[in-house]
Amino acid sequence: MARRPRCRHRGRAEHEPVRTVEGQRIPSGTHTVASEFGHRLAGDRICRRCELPRIRRAHLAQDHLSATAAARRSAHLSEYGRLPDGQERKRIPSVAAATQGPAARARRPIRLDARHQLTEGCRMMPRFVGDKIHPRGYRPVIALALPIAGIQLAQVALTTVDLAMMGLIGVVAVAAGGLAILLYNQVRTMCVGMVTGVGNLIAGAVGSGEKRTGGTEIDDRTRAQVRDLVRSGFLVATVVGLVAAMALTGFGLLLPWFGQRREIVEQARPMMIVLAPGLLPMLWLNVLRQFAIGMRRPGSLLKVTIVSIAVNAVLNAAFIYGWLGLPALGLTGIGLSTTCVQVFTLAVFYSRIRRDPHLAGLLALDCWNLDRGSARRIVRMGIPISLTYGNEAAITSVATLLMGAFGPAMLAASNVVNQLTYIAYQLNIGLSQGSSILISRSVGAGDRAEAGRIGRRALTVGAAAMTVLALAYLAGPHLVLAPFLHGGDDAEVVATAATLLWFAIAHQYCKGAQNICVGMLRGLGNTTAGLRITVIGYWLIGIPAMAGAAYLLHWRGYGVWLGLCLGFGSTAVLLLKQFRAELRIEPEPADSR
């Protein structure tokens, strides 16, 4: 009988029980090792001192496998860790189950040659060829996040074009149009939150289907689930859009009650009225968007959105000046142009999906055949998401109001820096939604360990991107501010904005991390925890910190930004702790629900 390998530190003071790769405490006297697919080898003694070198050496052994060894190992396990007959190798839930019982006796060990045995008296089964490690593991996250981030940036460009063309009309038009767009975006953001969960539910259904089929194909049961989620999403979007359109119209009629000047009300009210009908096609477009993202095919929407920017600019000019036989509507024409662009984008993207062979068969519009349970699931997920988005918009509005109390120079500098961070924030939104979809897919497939790895990769990519932007802020602050502040502007505004860039660096780390963590929790199906934690982080920590640092410590606008960082940072920490706790909770079997 072969001698069991032993740790060379056995018997010394540093020999202590350690956690396995699975994260479980091993009983005293029996240390085990684990591979990525759940195999456990009992009897290997390891300690804290040599655990990390052992794991690193295992990864090095994987990287230096010869072609012969790789072929021999791939004969046992395919890229997805399955046996040749297509059946999945199941995880062993405990040490006892790994060493006892018929499952352990039936499992045949995989022999390793001498090059795979590690020194220092420790041994670990190296990762299989199919296991995605190092940069390749980040590709799915980046590939899904970048198109979503591009779509978000294109939406920012649409708003920027509208604001720029308002300046061609006059100062009052900029003030009135800015007010109308502010209220429109607040309503639009909360409406989008109501249908955001559609993508996660579709991804979870697809993951479960892939688990049943043992490949990347989905079965008829999954196809029926996806169709029902799509038609339920359209019904929810229709109801929410109609209610939101009436609410936005009501806000326009109530503007005089908010103390706005008469000339501003006269221009803002008709713009809000023509913007209201555009909420309905906008929400239908977002259902199609979540459908495409849930199926991991969002690229075509990015192309459509980029084209819509040019269409929006042409229609803006046509409605402002009365070109192409259209009436000259001024500021109201910009609102009407935005509504027309929403209809145009919806029509083009719908036609693209109908031509996509992977998506066309799953797109269902017969809302009268929906399952009420699916609609309830969308609403249950959507309400917390919508309120979370509203919370985030609210704390930003409170910060703007506080900044205005310290003079126009401080407010102008804050608005410029906030616009910079808002542009950078779109990348984090892409990572949040992308990681959320991938996590939902992994959870649906029953691989919660992969869900944890996806979360770590999303946070890593987000931190790396924010680091690049931070270096740009530090290397050339005046160059970064040049598109917004020119040489003729007040020197005080430029100097204040350059100082606020230091706070912007911390702000984009904290806000980006908390947004990614919200998406990670949404991927696990928990949206209420995200709402609860954002309420704590924003209203109980962030806003009091802003007021205290600004007024009690007399740090003025800089204290407001410091409070924002504290609010977003504490929210990110609490969300990450909640995500890790959720990963450790095993879900109920599907048959029991």
UniProtKB/TrEMBL annotation:
Coiled coil: none annotated. The keyword Transmembrane applies. Pfam families: MatE (PF01554). InterPro entries: MATE_fam, MATE_MdtK. One of its GO terms (cellular component) is plasma membrane. Keywords: Membrane, Transmembrane, Transmembrane helix, Transport. The keyword ATP-binding does not apply. Residues 79-103 are annotated as: Disordered. GO terms for molecular function: antiporter activity; xenobiotic transmembrane transporter activity. The chain crosses the membrane at residues 141-158, 164-184, 233-258, 270-288, 300-323, 329-350, 458-481, 493-510, 531-552, 558-576. Multidrug efflux pump. Belongs to the multi antimicrobial extrusion (MATE) (TC 2.A.66.1) family. This is Probable multidrug resistance protein NorM. It comes from Nocardia arthritidis.
